[in-house]
Design a protein that fits this description.
This protein is 26% helix and 19% strand. By secondary structure, the chain is of the alpha+beta class. It has a 9-stranded antiparallel beta sheet with strand order 3-4-6-5-10-11-9-8-7. A 3-stranded mixed beta sheet has the order 1-2-14, with no helix packed on it. A two-stranded antiparallel ribbon has the order 12-13. The structure holds zinc ion (ZN) (2 copies).
């Protein structure tokens, strides 16, 4: 039984873990039906190669990844600079930036979990280029790279892609991580995230996969049932400074992690994935350790974690699962994607990837 509060050192807040509640009566558990076969090309998909988007622009006939400026950006270079003065204590400022879309693959039906390690490595290189390119621009203080994956987080188009918001402001979570990381470095001489990695490795129960230079784990202070952190073992402020071997290890660990999540319920596992990278605001950022955070909204198949009274009303997360148990569920999953397992049995041992 886990029934306690746990301190989230990166966000500086408490997480209430009440794992004794998980067996409480609950109606509505149904396993999601198998999705219909999705084709590899869809004529009206705005992300498929060669297709024309609503803006009238045409996608390249790309064969690996494809980056383009978002046609409907939330932050843009056209956002007004001349703002009406806010009343009283209220403040406002321009919401400027550059918003882009990165298609992972020309294949409409191939998720990030299903890409080969070398394809994921290639994607990591695109993220490196984008971070360096956008982050070096005048007025860009942060580059947020994120993927919303699955209908559970509001995405109906399965074509694998992520988004980039390069902005004139630093998103709040990153600002907090940067500030507490800097303070921890001043006070202890150590990188805060390295202390987290040390604690996770000392305990070991929450680690899901690991190789020479990368590690994935459900942190002690996870707010979501299957919240996973993925990080290089060496401190890098962003993805941009990872070496070739580190990129390979990172890609391999990301693949291993996503496959296990998909295998858990033999369905595409929905998530919000965000790269947490140092702001590009010219500050030293010596205490910032690049990592990916995955926030899957499901607690069970077809059961969403609703943000309700404690989270929305009170501002602290309440988790009714223990990170140790959830990590154990993922650790025992196969490293071979379930779709390939099916494929394997259908083709009597001949895998698409080894063929
Ligand atoms: Zn498509
Ligand atoms: Zn983070």
């Amino acid at each position: 039984m886990t029934w306690e509060e746990r301190w989230h050192p990166l966000r500086e807040e408490w997480v209430i873990v009440a794992a004794h509640r998980q067996d409480r009566p609950w109606n509505g558990q149904t396993v999601r039906p198998q999705a219909a076969e999705i084709p590899s090309y869809v004529a009206d998909c705005y992300l498929c190669p060669g297709n024309t988007r609503i803006s009238g622009k045409q996608n390249d006939q790309y064969s690996t990844t494809f980056v383009f400026d978002n046609d409907h950006p939330c932050v843009g270079e056209d956002a007004p600079l001349d703002l009406a003065t806010a009343q009283g204590l209220y403040r406002n400022r321009p919401a400027r930036g550059i918003a882009r879309v990165v298609c992972y693959s020309p294949r409409h039906n191939l998720s990030l979990a299903e890409l080969d390690v070398s394809e994921i490595e290639n994607l990591l290189r695109v993220w490196q280029e984008q971070y360096l390119d956008l982050g070096s621009r005048e007025g860009i203080r942060h580059v947020l790279i994120f993927e919303n994956n699955g209908e559970a987080v509001g995405v109906s188009n399965p074509h694998p892609h992520c988004q980039i918001y390069a902005t004139n402001f630093v998103f709040k979570t990153i600002e907090t991580e940067s500030r507490v990381g800097e303070r921890h470095l001043e006070e202890t001489g150590r990188v805060l995230f390295q202390d987290i990695l040390a604690a996770e490795r000392d305990d070991g129960r929450r680690i899901i996969c690991e190789n020479d230079s990368a590690i994935a784990f459900i942190p002690y202070f996870a707010r979501y049932a299957y919240e996973v952190f993925l990080a290089p073992k060496q401190t890098h402020p962003s993805v941009a400074t990872l070496t070739d071997p580190e990129l390979h290890d990172f890609a391999e660990t990301l693949k291993c992690l996503l496959v296990r999540l998909d295998n858990l319920w033999r369905m595409p596992f929905p998530y919000v994935m965000a790269l947490h990278q140092a702001p590009t605001d010219g500050q030293p950022q010596r205490g910032f350790h690049f990592h990916i955070e995955l926030h899957p909204p499901l607690r069970r198949p077809n059961l969403l974690k609703y943000l309700a009274g404690p989270e929305v009303g009170g501002g602290n997360f309440l988790s009714d699962t223990a990170p140790e148990e959830k990590a154990a569920e993922l650790r025992v999953q196969s490293e071979l994607h379930y779709k390939e397992q099916t494929h394997l049995s259908e083709s009597k041992g001949e895998s698409r990837r080894t063929a």
